[in-house]
Prior knowledge:
By secondary structure, this protein is an alpha+beta fold. The chain has one helix at about 45-65; strands at about 10, 25. It contains one helix and two strands; from the N terminus they run ββα.
Amino acid sequence: MIFPKSKMRIIEVHDGKRPEQGWLELNTASVDLEGVSKIYINLDELETLRKEMGQASEAAERARKLLGG
């Protein structure tokens, strides 16, 4: 099964742990996994997710600075 990018995201913290590159979260809530023995993730898409996470973090930091935080 090729896991859809729309069901993946990188998060910074999980269970109180904050590794340098974050965590890859796979949202399986609406994915039918019956009979699936392997999940494939395109690493190019993973790199895109990392870049998007970095941009979102930068935008949040700019917003905090604008709001005086």
